[in-house]
Write a structure and sequence with these properties.
Layout: E1 2-4, E2 10-13, E3 16-19, H1 23-34, E4 40-41, H2 42-50, H3 58-73, E5 79-82, E6 85-88, E7 94-95, H4 96-109, H5 113-125, H6 139-165, H7 169-182, H8 187-199, H9 203-220, H10 227-238, H11 272-284, E8 290-295, H12 302-313, E9 321-325, H13 337-347, H14 359-370, E10 376-382, H15 385-388, E11 399-404, H16 409-415, E12 418-421, H17 427-438, H18 440-445, H19 447-456, H20 461-472, H21 479-487, H22 494-497, H23 500-514, H24 517-525, E13 534-535, H25 536-543, H26 547-559, E14 564-567, E15 570-572, H27 575-588, H28 591-616, H29 635-655, H30 659-668, H31 670-676, H32 679-696, H33 699-715, H34 719-736, H35 739-755, H36 759-776, H37 779-796, H38 799-816, H39 819-835, H40 839-856, H41 859-875, H42 879-896, H43 899-912, H44 916-933, H45 936-952, H46 956-973, H47 976-1000
Parallel strand pairs: 1-7, 8-11, 8-12, 9-10, 10-11
Antiparallel strand pairs: 1-2, 2-3, 4-6, 5-6, 13-15, 14-15
Helix pairs in contact: 1-2, 1-3, 4-5, 5-6, 7-8, 8-9, 8-10, 9-10, 9-42, 10-42, 13-14, 17-19, 17-20, 19-21, 20-23, 24-26, 24-27, 25-26, 25-28, 28-29, 28-30, 29-30, 30-32, 30-33, 32-33, 33-34, 33-35, 34-35, 35-36, 35-37, 36-37, 37-38, 37-39, 38-39, 39-40, 39-41, 40-41, 41-42, 41-43, 42-43, ...
Domain OmpR/PhoB-type: 1-90
TPR repeats: 703-736, 783-816
DNA-binding region: 1-90
Length: 1001
């Protein structure tokens, strides 16, 4: 006998299909079948079958339906009554749901691709239509149907992956294309189609498919393709041989989902009424965005309850879980909504350079990405409703759970949040918690002392866990003796004023006094560490001990429940414990010792960041010198450490406990932010450093902060803000006599002026910078500024001067070993050679530049080189090669998010296109992007492209209009080469008109 739920509900008995008449009977059979082998309470069955609105006769009607189903199944023993409900016998029947799950599990376990494909195909074939199709309108069953459809989708995805690994590319393409028509944002399947096209020898079609997806994501969602897809496109561009290798095995994977919930903790007791109240959110979640707020005093167990419940229900949210500690009551600054949104967007797959820095824009993108997702979002330790609102999804389907010491009444009033007030444990629950840690025998032996200990801890879970942990380390100590020690401290006051926090303090005191002297000292000094968590190395630095000793002591604090370990190698603590440690430090440590500890910590931060900088961006000017010793094995290790510590480093700069060193730290992070483009953090660090440096009156540090902010705004495309900060940086560097930074500021002003089309001003700034670099002997700065000046010369048509500057910059960069500098100089030199017709030399330099860009992972540089090589190919009549180079450049430019480079790639694509209508489409898009950039050079190139495209379509009026605009703008800005090109197009238009008049005359 098989009960079938994957479609309409029926029963297959001895080969015959038996329908189940009646909605309530089908619902009852489905409810029992989905929980086969488990007793289902009668009241629960009534709630499922009648949607919590049963008739007065529901109990009798339920029994009648059970009798009917027993007769239908032909065996009264299949459905049995067992108090307090009914059970579908595990041996008497099977369900197609169980068969599907078993086959899927077997497919996951096997390493044989053919066996896996067979099992997965069998899973997919079990579906006869939408699961539980004929019990619509009953929420619990609809929820189960969604889970089953998720299994169906995962099996289908897995089958496609497996067939793909078996080499069935041609057979899969129609299925993939049909799937993507129905699911246009399924990036995983887009990747499969792109790879299938490439393996079928259709590289151009593969890149075209990627570009279509990139356009769809940008226009519909405002995001870039995932990093995996971008890497695939890059590998296709390189024609990576590994792409053609079929794997011997493949691990099944679904779309990656965030799983950010911290571990729930080992000891949890009671709270059943609170768990039941939270369960009511699951019903409301179907009709709208479900929001719950757990509110209560510090140490009452809000976070523990939230995590316990979240882990129980997380399977109901197949798209994952997001978590943020908002630090609403921490001694340091609270987490801003933009900071939490930045973390959420990163978890949802948005790269750092694509995350907006304005909270409204970030929240809008977050709401867009959450559309159609079912996620559980836990916002811990919130302070106000305003901190929460930007983090709420915009559509139903997800559930948001919030913990706070405040009731957040505004969320209940305006957003319909369900309040879950949390009080201290009951006496029975406190007894259960102590028993779970200390064991039955110990608590039974001293029942009165255990009860008194619970009362002394004010029945607060945090205090009870700490007291119990302290006793667990002393297995032979009597609870009464421990209690007497507490009485000797502050226990006597607890029953007078009823303040529950004194119970926490008493528990903290006992645990603290039980520590060794070194552990107590470390515990106190850790209160000086800013940020969300801390590493063993940070603990060693702040306490001035070696890492091995610090690891032992931190482990002891964690064992005493005075620290938690939220992630590998990092420790954190409850904000009450941090405040307690700070109080103890203020009472026991001298001001001099505390200041020395903070200095050690900040010195270690700077040393580590500078060591990373020495590897990642060694030629960037910094306030600090090189590290005293290497700390990282290679570039990857340095970048991984910076990524891991980013939040703590930002917090250290914001807190500025050691102001001078905080300024050094902020400046050393500038190169990291330039690499990673974490714009929001970059601006926070820059503004914090500027405020700190201003308060110190440190002009040099103010100049560094202004320089960092200018570069941040320049990378964000905000030229006016960049100029404001660079101008002030220049003034400050001259005021304090910091000539290296003065040359850097002059050079960066030249870059911005060039982007704005102010070429004469750019030349003035850059030549002044170069003269200063030569005078002070700063080779790295000289090479950078020579390359930037050469680029301006090239725009002005002074090709020989440009070539000379590029050549000198290349030689300097080769001496210093700067691969990034070499790539820039080689690219510029190649462009100069192309302008004077030295085609072979241009190709040689472009090819070498592409190699350097690839070595250092400079995607924008790669795109520029592909454009250069494509222009050479187009000039030589090799339009197919030019078209492929343009496609490659377009892929790289779109992944990098630079509209200027994307516009250049589109112009090249248009010039290489055989169809003039296609060319016009590409040129029109390039013009739209150019207008967004406000960069005259890019705008002129787009106008020239449109003029050429319209010329190809014989629309001479439009061609003349665009050519004249390009000519005027180029002349006004001084772009001589572009003006010459515009005049040449105008001349062609004039000749075409004259020829047309002559033909008609």
């Amino acid at each position: 006998m098989r009960i079938r739920l994957l479609g309409t509900i029926d029963v297959v008995l001895d080969g015959a299909v038996l329908p189940v008449p009646g909605l309530r009977r089908r619902a009852l059979l489905a409810a029992l079948a989905l929980q086969r082998g488990a007793v289902v309470d009668k009241d629960r069955l009534v709630g499922i079958v009648w949607n919590d609105d049963p008739p007065s006769t529901a109990a009798n009607t339920l029994q009648s339906h059970v009798s009917y189903l027993r007769d239908l199944l032909g065996d009264k023993g299949v459905i049995q009554y067992r108090r307090p409900g009914y059970i579908l016998d595990a041996d008497g029947a099977e369900t197609d749901v169980e068969v599907a799950q078993q086959l899927f599990d077997r497919a996951v376990r096997t390493s044989q691709l053919t066996d896996r494909a067979r099992d997965l195909r069998a899973v997919v074939d079990l579906w006869r239509g939408p699961a539980l199709a004929d019990v619509a309108g009953l929420p619990w069953l609809e929820e189960q149907a969604e889970r089953l459809e998720d299994l169906h989708a995962r099996a289908g995805h897995a089958l496609l992956e497996t067939r793909f690994a078996l080499g069935e590319h041609a057979q899969l393409m129609p299925e993939l294309e049909q799937h993507l028509r129905d699911n246009p944002f399924d990036e995983q399947m887009h990747g499969q189609l792109i790879l299938a096209l490439y393996r079928a020898g259709r590289q151009a079609d593969a890149l075209d498919a990627y570009q279509r997806l990139r356009t769809t994501l940008a226009e519909e969602l405002g995001i870039q393709p995932s990093p995996d897809l971008r890497e695939l496109a890059t590998a296709i561009l390189r024609q990576d041989p590994a792409l053609l290798q079929l794997p011997e095995s493949v691990e099944l994977s679904g779309p990656p989902v965030p799983a950010q919930l911290p571990a729930p903790g080992a000891t949890f007791t009671g709270r059943q009424a609170d768990l039941d109240r939270l369960d009511t959110l699951l019903a409301s979640e179907r009709g709208g965005l479900a929001i719950g707020t757990i509110a209560g005093t510090a140490g009452v167990g809000k976070t523990t309850l939230a995590l316990q419940w979240a882990y129980r229900v997380r399977d109901r949210f197949p798209d994952g879980q997001l978590f943020a500690d908002l630090r609403g009551y921490d001694a340091g600054p609270v987490v801003r909504p933009i900071d939490a949104l930045t973390g959420f967007l990163a978890a949802l797959g948005v790269s750092g350079d694509q995350i907006p820095v304005q909270v409204d824009q970030a929240a809008a993108l977050y709401r867009t990405l959450m559309t159609g997702r079912r996620m559980l979002i836990l916002l811990d330790n919130a302070r106000t409703a305003d901190q929460i609102r930007p983090l709420l999804p915009g559509e139903p389907g997800s559930l948001v759970l919030i913990t706070s010491r405040d009731r957040l009444s505004g969320l209940a009033a305006h957003e319909g949040a369900l309040p879950v007030p949390l009080s201290a444990l009951t006496e029975a629950e406190a007894h259960e918690l102590l028993t779970s840690v200390l064991g039955d025998a110990r608590v039974i032996a001293e029942p009165d002392a255990a009860a008194e200990l619970a009362r002394a801890c004010a029945y607060l879970p945090l205090a009870l866990r700490i007291a119990a942990a302290n006793l667990s380390w002393q297995p032979h100590r009597r609870i009464a003796d421990y209690l007497a020690e507490l009485r000797g401290d502050s226990l006597g006051t607890l029953t007078i004023d009823g303040d529950p926090q004194q119970g926490v303090a008493a528990a903290f005191d006992a645990s603290y006094q039980a520590l060794t002297f070194p552990a107590r000292r470390l515990f106190r000094l850790l209160s000086l560490v800013p940020g969300l968590d801390l590493s063993v190395s940070a603990a060693a630095a702040v306490s001035d001990i070696n890492a091995a000793d610090a690891r032992v002591l931190v482990g002891r604090l964690a064992s005493a429940h005075l620290l938690d370990q939220p992630r590998s190698g990092h420790y954190a603590w409850h904000d009450l414990l941090r405040a307690y440690a700070a109080d103890r430090s203020a009472a026991e440590d001298s001001d001099e010792d505390r200041a020395a500890a903070s200095r050690r910590l900040y010195d270690w931060y700077v040393e580590a960041v500078v060591a990373a900088a020495d590897l990642l961006y060694p030629h960037m000017l910094r306030l600090s010198q090189t590290a005293t010793a290497p700390m990282f094995a290679d570039h990857a290790a340095a970048l991984t450490w910076l990524d891991s510590e980013r939040a703590n480093l930002v917090a250290a700069v914001r807190q500025a406990a050691v102001p001078e060193t905080a300024c050094l730290l902020a400046d050393a992070l500038r190169g990291y932010f330039h690499l990673r483009r974490h714009s929001s953090d970059w601006l926070v660090v820059g503004e914090s450093a500027l405020n700190t440096a201003t308060a110190l009156g440190d002009i040099r540090a103010q100049a560094a902060a202004r320089h960092s902010l200018g570069t941040a705004y320049r990378c964000m495309g905000d030229s006016p803000s960049a100029l404001q900060h660079y101008d002030e940086a220049l003034r400050l560097t001259r005021l304090c006599g910091w000539q290296e930074a003065e040359a850097t500021a002059l050079g960066n002003l030249g870059i911005v002026y060039q982007a704005q089309g102010r070429l004469k001003a750019a030349v003035g700034r850059l030549t002044t910078a170069i003269a200063l670099d030569r005078r002070i002997g700063r080779t790295a700065g000289l090479a950078n500024n020579l390359g930037n000046l050469a680029a301006v010369y090239l725009d002005q048509g002074n090709v020989n001067a440009a070539a000379d500057c590029f050549g000198e910059a290349l030689e300097l960069n080769r001496r210093s070993g700067s691969r990034h500098g070499q790539a820039l100089a080689l690219t510029g030199l190649a462009q100069a050679y192309r302008e004077v017709g030295r085609t072979d030399d241009a190709i040689w330099r472009f090819t070498e530049a592409l190699q350097r860009c690839t070595e250092i992972g400079d995607r924008d540089g790669q795109a520029i080189v592909h454009i250069g090589l494509g222009e050479v190919a187009r000039d030589q009549g090799r339009t197919t090669d030019a078209y492929e180079r343009a496609q490659a450049a377009l892929t790289l430019a779109r992944d990098g998010g630079d509209p200027r480079t994307e516009a250049l790639a589109l112009n090249l694509l248009a010039s290489a296109a055989r169809d003039p209508h296609e060319a016009l489409r590409h040129n029109t898009r390039a013009r739209e992007l150019a207008e967004q950039t406000t960069v005259p050079r890019t705008q002129i190139q787009a106008l020239l492209g449109l003029a050429t495209a319209n010329l190809g379509l014989d629309d001479l009026d439009q061609a003349r209009h665009h050519a004249e605009r390009a000519t005027n703008l180029a002349a006004r800005c001084g772009y001589q080469l572009l003006e010459d090109e515009a005049l040449a197009i105008s001349a062609t238009i004039h000749l075409r008109r004259a020829g047309a008049r002559q033909a008609t005359g």
